[in-house]
Each structure stands twice: as structure tokens, then as C-alpha cells.
């Protein structure tokens, strides 16, 4: 298994009552930008407070990032900022794995659970994945409409699901 680009291994047994400060260096940010399809990441940091509850570790804090992504339509560079709360739970991996193609019902809190084995979990990778979830894959910039028109693509209102109904109504 490859080591993640922004790996910060935490030993559950060594957690003390103070925030863990994480910051990706230039090389880690460049590798994460490649992985997430971004033009670049200028800043990725987090201040996370870890709370142990038996074998479960709650991680609460802030994710802050500055990055540049390409407009989904025109390809122009779009500077973006993320500053949001994160709340994760690191839980021991269970011995029973899900059966392939078995439907699993998840509760709202289950989506932010990250399994770990032994006494170690990767807080840096969790922060990187939180950034990935915060990126809008369909972000558009101010030149998106001009680029659509130049390419002969209709805007969303003209091509959306109700456009066909409106056209039928006009024909009648």
C-alpha cells in the first residue's frame, strides 16, 4: 500500500488534551493537487482536537485551504478558499467485512467514520479527504457562459429538463 501524500499518523495511546496542528508542505500540496485534479493548492491546514472515548477517537476542528481549480466549462483558473468545521470519528475496524454487492444502510453519523486497525490512524489523510469532499467538481467562473456560447452549448435554462416541456407548450 502506498503512503498517502499528506500522512500524519496518530497513536491513539499518545493523545493528549491539546489541538493537533497539521499543515501540508509544498511537496505534499503539489502531490495532493495532482490527485484531486487541481491546478494547485496554496494552503492546507487544520487544527484538530482529538477526544478519546474508549477505542473511538473523535476529531473536531477546522479545515482551512486555498487552492486553484479549473472552471468546468472554460478551463480558466478559479481561486477557491475553504474554511469549515470538520467532525470525524476514528473507529476500530470490525472483523466482519461487508459482503460484495450487499446493500448497507448508513446513518448520518456513519458517513464521517473512518476505520483504523491497531492503535494508529492517519489524521493527515483524513484532512486531505475532507478537502476533496469540499471541492466543487462543477465549479464555473465568470467566463463560463461566454465559453458555452462560443462552443454552441446552450445554457442550463435552455437545455434543462423543463426546456423540452416549454418547447412542447409553444408548439401547441
UniProtKB/TrEMBL annotation:
Organism: Croceibacterium xixiisoli
Domain of life of the source: Bacteria
Pfam families cross-referenced by the UniProt entry: YceD (PF02620)
UniProt protein name: DUF177 domain-containing protein
